[in-house]
Design a protein that fits this description.
The protein is α/β, with parallel strands linked by helices. It has a domain of 251 residues: TIM Barrel (Alpha-Beta Barrel). Helix content is 42%, strand content 12%. The strands form two sheets. The protein has an eight-stranded parallel barrel, surrounded by six helices. A two-stranded antiparallel sheet has the order 10-11. Helix 9 links the parallel strand 6 and strand 7. Helix 6 runs parallel beside helix 8 and helix 9 packs across helix 10.
C-alpha cells in the first residue's frame, strides 16, 4: 500500500498562468443522509489548506504534465489508425491502470481519491463538473477542481451539451489531468432536465460533435463514460461512432439509463465484452465490482482493460487492496481472515486527508455515513448524535470513532487467506494425480 500522506497539495491559485484555484468541490447536489443539517453549515470548508513552510513545499512550479501531453499536438489531422495507435500509446505510458475509482458526485473528491490510491487504486475520476457553470462562474470554477501532484493518473469528467462551451472548460483543466472525460451515463432526473449525461443518447449527432470538438483541439485525450442501450446492436454502433469521432478510451457501464438501482439490476458484462470486441481503443468495465473476485471475473469475462468501482468503494475504500466487507465473506469464512483493518480505521485516514486537503463538511458527513453504516446499524444512537450535529468538527468525528470502539462489536474487513487457497489447490492437484495414477 502506498504512503500518500506526505504528498504536496498543489495550490493552483498561486501557479503562474492558470485560471484555477485549489479550493474544494461545491457540487450540484447535496450528499444524502438522514436528517441533514442546514446546508449553509455543511457547505463550509472543513479547514483552510495547509501552508507549507519548506523550500520544496513552497515551489510554485506547475505539476508534471509530461504524461498528459504524450499525445503531442491535437489529433485533428490523424487518421483513424493513427488515433488508435496514439490512444494505446498514451494508455501504456500511464501503466495501463486496471483498478479505477469511478466518478461520484460529492464522493470522488481529492481526499477520497487519495485514500483509494493508497489502497490499490491505479487511477481515478473527479466528480462530474458542469461545463457551462465551470466556464461562467469563477467561484464554482475555483471551488470545484482540486488535485495534487500524486493524484495521477486522473480523469476530469464534465457534463456538456455545447461543444464550444465544453472545449472552453476542458482547456482549463487539461494541464492537470490525463484524460478529459465526457459524462454520457448519468441517468438522474437532473441530467434529463439539463439535457446531458445518458439523455444525450437521444441525440447522437450532438454527442459526436462534442467528442470531435475536443479530440481535434485538446492536447490530452478524450474519454467517454457511457451506458448501454437496450439493444446490443445500438450499443455497438454507439461505441464505434464514439471511437470514430476521436474517443481514446471508453468506459462502459453495463446497465441502461433506466436501470438506476445497481442492487436491483445486474450489469450486463456480455454487452461490455461485445463493445470491447467491436472497438480498437481501451475499454473499461463498470458494474458489479464489489470485491477483487469480481475484478478478476469481470476482466476475464469481458476482456476489458480495467474496471471501475463506485458504491462498493464508498463503503470499503480498501477494496482494490483485496479487503472485503463481512457481507462478501458469509458462507466462506474458512477461506477468509481478519485483515487487521476496519472501516473506522479507514475513516480516520480519510479525516486526516481532509485536514490536509479541505472539503465541504457535507462530503465528509456523507463518507462517515457510508464507511460507518454497518457500525451505525449496531449502535443507532451514535448515528443519531451525528445527525443532530449541525456543525461538524474533526474532534467530534474522531470522538465518534473512539465511542464506537469503546462500545465494542468491531466489524473487521477481511482478506482471502492465500495460504488456505494454495493448500486447497495443492490438495486438489495431489488428489487428481493420485486418482490418475490409480487408474493405471
Amino acid at each position: 500500500m502506498k504512503n500518500l500522506f506526505s504528498s504536496q497539495f498543489i495550490s493552483l491559485e498561486t501557479l503562474p498562468s492558470t485560471p484555477l484555484k485549489p479550493l474544494m468541490a461545491s457540487s450540484l447536489t447535496h450528499a444524502l443522509c438522514q436528517d441533514p443539517p442546514p446546508p449553509h453549515l455543511d457547505d463550509l470548508l472543513c479547514s483552510k489548506p495547509q501552508q507549507h513552510q519548506t523550500e520544496d513545499d513552497n515551489d510554485t512550479s506547475l505539476p508534471d504534465t509530461s504524461s498528459s501531453f504524450c499525445l503531442g499536438s491535437p489529433s485533428r489531422y490523424l487518421s483513424g489508425e493513427s488515433r488508435v495507435e496514439r490512444a494505446w500509446s498514451h494508455w501504456t505510458k500511464l501503466g495501463r491502470p486496471k483498478l479505477i475509482v469511478a466518478p461520484m458526485v460529492d464522493n470522488s473528491e481529492l481526499p477520497f481519491r487519495m485514500l483509494c490510491r493508497k489502497y490499490g487504486a491505479d487511477a481515478a475520476y473527479t466528480p462530474m463538473l458542469h461545463s457551462r457553470i465551470f466556464t461562467e462562474n469563477e467561484k464554482y470554477r475555483n471551488q470545484e477542481f482540486t488535485t495534487c501532484q500524486e493524484d495521477r493518473p486522473l480523469f476530469v469528467q464534465f457534463c456538456a451539451n455545447n461543444p464550444d462551451t465544453f472545449l472552453d472548460a476542458a482547456r482549463r483543466v487539461e494541464p492537470y489531468c490525463d484524460y478529459v472525460d465526457i459524462n454520457l451515463g448519468c441517468p438522474q432526473r437532473i441530467a434529463r432536465r439539463g439535457n446531458y449525461g445518458a439523455f444525450l443518447m437521444d441525440n447522437l449527432p450532438l454527442v459526436k460533435s462534442l467528442v470531435e470538438k475536443l479530440a481535434c483541439n485538446l492536447h490530452v485525450p478524450v474519454s467517454c463514460k457511457i451506458r448501454v442501450f437496450p439493444k446490443l446492436e445500438d450499443t455497438i454502433n454507439y461505441a464505434k461512432m464514439l471511437e470514430e469521432a476521436g474517443c481514446s478510451l471508453l468506459a462502459v457501464h453495463g446497465r441502461t439509463r433506466d436501470e438506476k438501482d445497481g442492487k436491483k439490476f445486474r450489469a450486463d458484462w456480455k454487452a461490455i465484452k461485445a463493445v470491447k470486441s467491436a472497438v480498437r481503443i481501451p475499454v473499461l468495465a463498470n458494474g458489479n465490482i464489489r470485491h477483487m473476485d469480481d475484478v478478476q471475473n469481470c476482466l476475464e469475462e469481458t476482456g476489458a482493460d480495467g474496471v471501475l468501482s463506485a458504491e462498493s468503494l464508498l463503503e470499503n475504500p480498501a477494496l482494490f487492496a483485496g479487503f472485503r466487507t463481512a457481507e462478501w465473506v458469509i458462507g466462506d469464512e474458512k477461506r477468509n481472515r481478519d485483515g487487521n483493518l476496519d472501516q473506522a480505521d479507514l475513516l480516520v485516514e480519510y479525516l486526516k486527508l481532509c485536514e490536509k486537503y479541505p472539503v465541504p463538511w457535507r462530503m465528509i458527513r456523507a463518507h462517515v455515513h457510508k464507511m460507518l453504516g454497518d457500525w451505525f446499524r449496531i449502535h443507532p444512537h451514535v448515528r443519531e448524535d451525528l445527525n443532530a450535529q449541525s456543525r461538524l468538527t474533526f474532534e467530534f468525528l474522531y470522538n465518534i470513532v473512539d465511542q464506537l470502539r469503546e462500545l465494542g462489536g468491531r466489524i473487521p474487513l477481511y482478506l482471502k487467506d492465500v495460504e488456505v487457497d494454495t493448500l486447497a489447490a495443492e490438495v486438489t492437484a495431489n488428489g487428481l494425480a493420485n486418482n490418475f495414477c490409480n487408474t493405471w
